[in-house]
Amino acid sequence: MKRIENCIAGCSPELANILEIAAKAALRAGKIIRELYGKPHQIRQKGDIDLVTEADISSENAILAILDKAGLHAEILAEESQSIYNEIPTGPVWIIDPLDGTTNFAHGFPWFAVSIAYADKGGSQVGVIYCPMQDELFYGCLDRGAWLNGKPIRVSGIPVLDKSLLATGFPYDVRKKTAKVLAALEAVLIRVQGIRRAGAAAMDLAYVACGRLDGFWEIKLKPWDTAAGQLLLEEAGGKTSDFQGSCYSPFISEILATNSLIHKELLSVIRDVL
Question: Which long-range contacts (CB under 8 A, 24 or more apart) does 186-193 make?
C-alpha cells in the first residue's frame, strides 16, 4: 500500500505491521460499503434514531476476518458484535467502528467512515479512518505523526474562536434530553464563524486533524467513535480533553477536540454550559 509507506518507514516494526493490518482492513471494509451504497438496504433500529444496516455487519465481518488472519494477540471491541466491556482494557485491543455515520449511509448522504484503532497500555498506538466515498485514508502511529493518502497533515493555525469552524454531534437520546445539547449549541454558535453537524464523529476528528475544521465537541460517545481520531488529532498537533479540561480517553463519554490554539477558549464556553 503505497499511501502508507512514508508513515511506516518511521514506525517501529511492531507498529508498522499493525498499521499495515489496520489499513488493509479499513480499505477492504470501505470497498464493501462503497459497493452497497445507493442500493436498497436492510435496516433495523437499535434505538429511536440508532440504525444498523447490512453494510455495518458486512464491514465488521470483513475487518474481523483480516484481524483474525493476522494472528495478533489482542482483544476486540467492535460496535456491532463485541461492544460490551466491564472494565477499560489495559492490554492490546482493537477498537472498531465498521461504519461510523450509519444514518447518513442509509439515507444516501455520503459522509461516513470506517474507524480502526489499536490500543495498548491505556492509549491508542495506531489509528486509521477511511472515508470510502472520498477515498481518503487518514492514518498514523504513535510518535510518527498523522497522514492522509501519503502526505503528513497538521491542524489549522486559527488562533481564536471567533474565526473558527467547528463540528458537533447529537446523542442518540437527543429526543428525550435536548436541554444540554441545545444550550451548548447556542453558547458556541454565537462565538464562532460556523458549526457543522454532519453525523460521523470519526470524520469530524479526522477533519480537525487535517485543518479542515478547527474544533469538535460531543457527548455520549463510545470508544469506537474516537479511539482512532484521538490519535490522529494529537499526532497532528491538536489537543483533546473532557469538558473540565482533564485528560481525554475514548472511554470517557464527552470529548472536546481542537487545533490546540482555541482549546482554552472553547473549553471555557462549554464548561460554563455543561
Answer: 187/269, 187/270, 187/272, 187/273, 188/217, 188/266, 188/269, 188/270, 191/161, 191/162, 191/269, 192/161, 192/162, 192/164, 192/165, 192/166, 193/162, 193/163, 193/164, 193/165
pLDDT at 240: 98
Pair 33, 107 in one domain = yes
- Write out the residue range of the structural domain in which residue 47 sits: 2-153
101 in Cβ contact with 111 (< 8 Å) = yes
Rounded to 5°, angle at Cα 101 from 161 and 30: 115
Q: How far is C-alpha 138 from the chain's CA centre?
A: 10
Domain-ending residue, one of 125, 153, 181: 153
pLDDT at 40: 64
**One-letter amino acid of 169:** G
Cα-based distances in Å from 113 to 121, 128, 170, 206, 207:
26, 10, 17, 10, 12
Residue finishing a domain among 153, 187, 206:
153
Residue stretches of the chain with pLDDT short of 50: 49
